[in-house]
Amino acid sequence: MQKPGSGVITTTEDVDRLEFHWGKIHFLSEPAVTGAKRFSFGVVELAQGEGHARHNHPGSEEIIYVVSGQGEQMIDDQPPVKVGPGSSIYVPADVYHSTVNTGTETLQLIVVYSPPGPERLLREIPGCRVVEK
User: Fold this and answer.
1) Is the dihedral of CA 84, 88, 2, 59 positive or negative?
2) Going by C-beta distance under 8 Å and a sequence separation of 6 or more, which residues neighbour residue 46?
3) What's the total number of domains in the chain?
4) Cβ atoms < 10 Å from Cβ of 22
5) pLDDT at position 34, please?
6) For the segment 65-79, what is each residue's pLDDT rounded down to a tens digit?
7) Boundaries of domain holding 92
């Protein structure tokens, strides 16, 4: 990994892995990793039949992009919508949302938070196991 300030290239091998009962996350760009100041970026894997509970990110917007798999996305307590590869989900700051894997394979997602911050708070959730790089 190159040092922050000169541009940074990271892989999942370079960063901590956050593990939950529903899956795992690698944050490939966040202030602590790359020095990014305006956003954080990560890859998420939701296990088959699993999902994360209704939650929000105070003060941070989120974009979720579905790389592979099938799921249901709830935003703002509205009925869930089916999502699949190529789906882009925008979640405004403070809005409650949840994602559930309804398919037969791992649901792979890319997530972006702006401004950064939620990626650090995830480490404090009960049941989060941090596997250091």
Assistant:
1) negative
2) 22, 23, 52, 69, 71, 99, 100, 101, 106, 107, 109
3) 1
4) 19
5) 94
6) 999 999 999 999 999
7) 17-131
